[in-house]
Amino acid sequence: MLHLPVELLAVAGITLLAVVSPGPDFAFIVRCVVTRGSRAGYLGAAGIATGIAIHVSYTLLGFGLVLARHAWLIDIVRYLGAAYLIWLGLGAWWPRDRGDANAQTRDVQRASGQVAAWRQGLLCNLLNPKAMLFIVALFSQVVATDTTWVVRCGYGVFIVLAHLVWFALVARLLALPAFSRAITRGAGIIDRVVGGLLVALGIRMASLP
Predict the structure, then answer these.
(1) What is the dihedral of CA 66, 72, 74, 77, to 10 degrees?
(2) Distance CA 143, CA 148 (A)
(3) Where are the strands (E) in the chain, listed by range?
(4) How many CB atoms lie within 10 A of CB 81?
(5) Rounded distance, CA 84 to CA 198, Å?
(6) Chain centroid to CA 89: how far?
(7) Which member of 53, 58, 86, 177 has the lowest number of beta carbons within 10 Å of its beta carbon?
(8) Under 8 Å CB-to-CB from 112, ≥6 apart: which residues?
(9) Which pTM does this prediction carry?
C-alpha cells in the first residue's frame, strides 16, 4: 500500500503525463482553434474536462470496474469513439459554403460553432475507451483501497482540473499572435492535416484488438 504522500505524487505524475500526451483530445483542440477561434478552444477544453468528470464519477461510484470487466462494453465505446473521430476528421475535408454571407450571418455561424465545441469535446473524450480505462486503472491500481472517500474525490477534482487547464492552455498558446498569424495564413492546410490525423486516430482505435 502506498502512503498518502507517495500515492498523491503517483496520481499527480501519472495524470500529468497522460494529459500532455498527444491524442484525440489534443488534435480536437487544435482543430477547434484553427477553425473557430480561441473561445471555441476553451469551450472544447471544458467539454473534455466534463467527459473526464463523468469517467471519474462512475469510477468513484464503483461502476468503472464493472465496465472494464465487460469487453463488449469497451468495444461498443471504442467503435462509437472511432466513428466519431472519423466523422470529426472528415469534416475538415467537406466543402464549406464560401459564399458572400453577411457579417451577421457569419457571426451567428461562429457562435453556433463555439457552442458546439463543448459538446464535441465532451463526446471526443467520453467515447475514448483509453480515457475510460486510464481513470479506472488509476483508481484501482494506484489509489489504495483504504484511501478515504474525501481524498479520492480530491484526486478526481485534480484530474478534471488538470485536463481543463492543459487544454485551455493549448488553446491559449495557439491564439498567441505568433501562432495566430501562422494559423490564419495556413488555416485550410492545418485544418485538413489535423482532420487527417483525427481520421487516422479513429481508424487506429477501431482496429485495436
Answers:
(1) -120
(2) 10
(3) none
(4) 25
(5) 9
(6) 14
(7) 177
(8) none
(9) 0.83
The 8-class DSSP code of residue 149 comes to H
- Rounded to an integer, what distance in angstroms lies between the CA atom of residue 88 and that of residue 196? 10
Name the residue with cell 472517500.
149
- Residues constituting the chain: 209
Q: What are phi and psi of 70, to 5 degrees?
A: -115, 100
Interior angle at CA 60, CA 56 and CA 63, nearest 5 = 95
Can you tell me the distance from the alpha carbon of 190 to that of 205, in angstroms, rounded to the nearest whole number?
Answer: 22
Per-residue DSSP letter, 141: I
One-letter amino acid identity for 203?
Answer: I
pLDDT tens profile 79-120: 888 888 888 888 777 655 544 444 444 444 455 567 789 999
What long-range pairs does 176-184 form, CB within 8 A, spacing at least 24? 183/33, 183/34
Identity of the amino acid at 36: R
